[in-house]
C-alpha cells in the first residue's frame, strides 16, 4: 500500500486469483484500522499545502501522466493477470489514465466575479473539499480510479483510494508509480476486503466519498455518508437499452452493436444490456449478432489472439450462467454461446438470446457479463417505454439510418447519456452520470471537476 508516500505492508493479507486459471497467484495487504487512520491522517496533513498552489498541481498531474505512460509495460500485465482482460485492452486502460490526468491538468476552476463596483465586490470561488475517500470496482480498476484521482487532485483535494479486493494489484502499483511524483500523502492507496470500504465511508476524516460500484453497495455508501453529511458521488449499475429503428442497416451496425455489449466481456456499467428490435427485422438482427458472437475468440488475456478474456471472478461467472439457464428454462434460446468454456478459469461463451421477454431476470437485471437478450417490439413508443421501465438510467442508444429521427428517440430515453449510432463513446470532457438508481452526481468534464469543490462566496460591501 502507499501511505504518506511510503510503501507499507501488513501481516494480514488476502489472495488474488488469476481469472484465466481460477488459481490464486498473489496476495494483497489487508489494511488494518490503524493503517487506515494513518492513511487518512496523511491525506489530511498533505491537504494543507496541496490545496494552496494550482500551478504546482497542474505540473504534477502532467508529470503523473508521464510516469503512468512510462509504466505501461509494468502496469498492463498485472491488470491482465488480475482482471482477465486481453493485454491490448489493459494497455489501453493504462494509457487512458494518462489521458485523464492530462485533461484535468488542463482544466481550472477560476473565480467568478459577480460584482465589482463602488457598491460591492462579490467573488465566487470553488474550493476543494478536503480528503476524498475513493472506492472502485473490478471491471476497470485503473481508468475508474483515474476518473476520481485526476479531478479530485486537480481541484486541490487529497485522497485515500481503495480498489476492489478482486483487482487490487494494478491500483496498488499505480500508487507506487505516483508516489515518485506526488508529494507524500496526496494519494494514499490501501487494499482490503469489502469491510474496509465501509470503514472508509464511516471514517470521520473524508469530506467526500466518490464511489463506483453496484446499486446495492451504493445505497449502503449513501447511508454511511448521511450522518456526517459527507459529499457524495455514486456511479452505479446500468441496464442500458439499445433501440434499433426500422430503417437500421443491420450489416453495418452488427459489429459496433455487438462490441457495445461485449467489450470487456460485458463487464461495463454502460454496456448495451438489452436490444429492442422492430418485430419484422428481428430474425435478421439476431442472426447478425449471433454471427459476430460466433466469430469472437475467447481465451486468456495473455494470448494476443484473444479478443475476450474470462469473466473476472467465479461469482460473476456463476451469475451469468444462472441468468442464461433461467431464461432458457423459461423459453429463450441461446443462438450463440449459452455455456461456460470447458476447462479452468472463469470463461463463458459470448451469448445471444432470442425469445426473451421483459420480466425475465436477464432482461430486468444488470447481467454484467457476455450475454445479450434481443427483444422484439411493435411501436417505437412501446420500445421507449420498455427501455425506460426500470430503476436504471445510466445510458442508452438508438440506431437507425435517419440519424435525426434516431436522435429524437434518444432524447426520450431517461438516462445520463443517450448515444445515436454508437454506444460507450466516453471522453474526459464529456459529463458522465446516471439517472434514477444508476447514480448521484457527475464524473468527468468540468462538471466532474466541480463536484470535487464547494462554492465559497466573498461579498464585500463598499456602500
Ligand atoms: P461492488 O459494489 O460489489 O463493489 C465496489 C467496491 O465497493 C469494491 O471496492 C468493494 O470492495 C467496495 N465495497 C463493498 N462493500 C462496501 C461497503 N459496504 N461500503 C463501501 N464500499 C464497499 O461492485 P463490483 O461488483 O465491484 O462492480 C460491479 C458493479 O459496478 C456493477 O453494478 C457495475 O455496473 C458498477 N459500475 C458502475 C460504473 C459507473 O460508472 N456507473 C462503472 C463501473 C462499474
Strand content: 15-25%
CATH architecture of the largest domain: 3-Layer(aba) Sandwich
**Mean of residue pLDDT values:** 98
Q: Tell me the CATH topology of the largest domain.
A: Aldehyde Dehydrogenase, Chain A, domain 1
**Cα radius of gyration in angstroms:** 23 Å
Bound heterogens, unique:
nicotinamide-adenine-dinucleotide
Number of strands: 22
- Largest sheet strand order: 14-15-16-13-12-17-18
What structural class do helix, strand and pairing data support?
A: alpha/beta
Poorly predicted spans: none
Question: What does the model show?
Answer:
The chain has 463 residues and is of the alpha/beta class. The protein has two domains: 261 residues, Aldehyde Dehydrogenase, Chain A, domain 1, CATH 3.40.605; 188 residues, Aldehyde Dehydrogenase, Chain A, domain 2, CATH 3.40.309. Helix content is 39%, strand content 23%. It contains 15 helices and 22 strands. The strands form six sheets. Strands 14-15-16-13-12-17-18 form a seven-stranded mixed sheet, sandwiched between helices. Strands 9-8-7-10-11-20 form a six-stranded mixed sheet, sandwiched between helices. Strands 5-6-22 form a three-stranded antiparallel sheet, with no helix packed on it. Strand 5 and strand 6 form a beta hairpin. 53% of the residues are buried. Bound molecules: nicotinamide-adenine-dinucleotide. Nicotinamide-adenine-dinucleotide binds next to helix 7 and helix 8.
